[in-house]
Every structure is written in structure tokens, then in C-alpha cells.
Amino acid sequence: MNRRVIVAGVGMIPFTTPRVSESYDVMGEKAARAALADAGVDYADVNQAYVGYIYGDSTSGQAALYGLGQTGIPIVNVNNNCSTGSSALFLARQAVESGAAECVLALGFEQMQRGALAASYTDRPSPFARFDEVMDQIQPRTEAPFAAQMFGGAGQQYLEKYGTSLETFAQISVKSRIHAANNPYSVFRDPLTVEEVLASPHLYGPLTRLQACPPTCGAAAAVVCSEEFARKHGLDSSVVIKAQAMTTDFTSTFEDKDMMKIVGYDMAKAAADAVYEASGVSPTDIRVVELHDCFTANELITYEGLGLTPEGTAEKFILDGDNTYGGRVVTNPSGGLLSKGHPLGATGLAQCAELVWQLRGTAGARQVDGVKVALQHNIGLGGAAVVTLYEKVS
Q: Which of 95, 170, 195, 315 is the most exposed place for a label (fewest CB within 10 A)?
């Protein structure tokens, strides 16, 4: 079976810093309730649930959803690093599309600690061991957080290849704050200047601290269902998942000795190409994108990975304003990970929520004109990339 999958409801809570965060179960329940209310369905109508998080004990998903009731449905806990939220959505979409379920809840949350990401277990092999080994052959190690070294190294490689200025990388953070100013769910909404971004503490390569996403807590959710279920319950059927693809690392990730590929460029490009082929939609048709801007360097190289601009032209794309309102495609109208925040398990579903609001025309001051299709890109090192195309239908 290959059925159309409707995104009937979305919900999220305002993202915040670890210092003032609620516990994961409270956040998760609130986001799930918001998505169910938006869809107009009861938890008793949900057949399955997929719950994503990274930092938490097993069955934390059950702990978050049992506040809605104990209905006996399958609840599957998902961990795919920073692409966890969209991985949960991928599984929910598959369940509906295949006919295994009529209505499925995808939930993501994260209760993070302050400071840079670090390994939780030091008594066993790291899943990043192969990445570290290859990275050590390409660039020198520093005391910077490992993610900053990876993405900063990718940015440095791009800079050296194309002569991109440091100011261009910084401009992405400036743009992010401008967009986030109109998003009540964002952590950081105060404006920045290029000078302020560049003057913040240096991390690695072209990156400074204000070009890195902050540790964030939060939750987001989506309710997906079949057309038959939507008709039966009188649900809003205006937004559908037109195409979706997930990829993992290729041999090129490790064999090509390329920092851009280490951080997932090939995964993202392959997933995006698969989505374009399956949907018949071209990158030139896209007017709004939520992409994985964990660092400014990743946003810059992802413009090209997603086909939004040809290889080697990302700087011109930015300087011409083609990545924001008034340009060709609005990237991260929510403020993205850089400003909205990045609660790892929730990010993919927060991206989903923003794009559903854009397609419904209910994004308020963030609204992009004439949105008919919307693209989502969510990536996790280790690795997994999920690219999703949403469509507004009559």
C-alpha cells in the first residue's frame, strides 16, 4: 500500500535554556496535547506513537505519554542523534502510508544540560570513533567541542576552496536573529550585528560562539493520519507529506577525506535528490525551507547540498539576500537551531510544525507568501539525514 499521509496537527512549546526548563515528561506531554488539540483528535484515537529523545533513560517516551492516558498502544522510543525528531516522523509516516495504522503521534523532546555536547559513556567504543579517526587525518585537533571541530572544519574547507569571507558566515547568524524576532517559541530574539558575531569567542575555523546553536530544552509533536481517518473525523487535510527520504553515511563519508562529507553533505544531498525525484518537485519550486543550521557553516554548505543554489555559489546566495524574505527562498523562518534553539530530540518536529504553519498560512509575521510546498532538512552525525517535502492541497 502507498497511501497519502496527512499532517493533521502540530504542536510545540516555547524552547528555553536548561536553567529554567521543565522536566522532559512535562514538556513532552504539553507538546503532545498541543498537537492533538490542533488536529482535533483524542489520544484514544491514536494507534501508535514514536517518541524521540537522546538524553534520557529507556521508555522515557512512555513516561511522557502516560499523562495522556494508558491506552495500550505501541510506543516506540527513537534515538538518531540530532535527526531524532524527524526519524520519529519518518516512522510515523511509514506506519500510516503502509496501512499499519490510521493515526500516529510523533513526539520529540529533550531535557539538556548546560555546556557543549559530550559523550555519555566512556567505558565502551564511541559511535564517532571512525569519524574521529578520519578527521584526525584531515585537520588538527583543538580544545573546541567536537561538534564545533567537525562543522568548523567543514566550513574551513569550504572557505579555502571558494574564498568565502568570515563576514558571510556571520551574516547567517544575523539573519537567524531577524527571523527569530517574530517567533515566540525561540530562545534568542535579540538582534545581532556581523561585528558582534565575529567578536564572540572563536571556536574552530570560521566559527565563533554566536555561530553555534545553544543547548536547549523543549518539545514538539505532530499527528499524522490517513485520508480516510481525516474524512471520518472531519480533520484539516490541507497539508500532506508529499515525499520523504532518510539516508545514512556512504563510503564517501570516510574514504574521501572530506570534512563536508564527514558532517553529512553526501547524506543530505542523496536524501534531497530522492525527495525531488519521488515528488517531481524541483529545488527552484521551493520558497521556504527549515534546514539544520546547528552551525552557520552547516547552513551555508546545506544550501548547496539541497540544490537551492549551485555548488560554489552559497556566498553570492547569501549576499544577494536570496536566503531570506524578499529573496528566492526563505531559509529557517523560525530562526532555526541558531536562534530558536536545538533540543535535539524535538528539532525535527519543531521544523515540521513551522512548515505546517507556513503552508496553512498561519505563521503570522513569519509568513512566507505563496507557499505551496515546503522542504525540511534534519541531520544527525553518526549518521542519519531526513529530508521531507510537505505540500498544501485543496
A: 195
Whether the ω angle into residue 307 lies within 30 degrees of 0, i.e. cis, is no
- Residue 53 grid cell: 529523545
Please give the grid coordinates belonging to residue 384.
542519519
Grid coordinates given for 83: 535527526
257: left (phi over 0), alpha (psi -120 to 50) or beta: left
Hey, what long-range contacts does 277-283 have (CB within 8 A, 24 or more apart)? 278/243, 278/245, 279/242, 279/243, 279/373, 279/389, 279/391, 281/242, 281/243, 281/373, 281/389, 283/307, 283/308
**Residues marked as catalytic:** 82
Assigned C-alpha cell, 116: 557543549
How far apart (Å, rounded) are the C-alpha atoms in residues 225 and 40?
12
Query: Which pTM does this prediction carry?
Result: 0.96
Backbone angles phi and psi of 124, in degrees to 5: -155, 165
What one-character DSSP code corresponds to residue 312? T
- Counting Cα atoms < 13 Å in the Cβ hemisphere of 296 gives 32
Q: What is the DSSP string of 105-164?
A: EEEEEE-PPSSS---S--SS--TTHHHHHHHHHHS---SS-HHHHHHHHHHHHHHHHH--
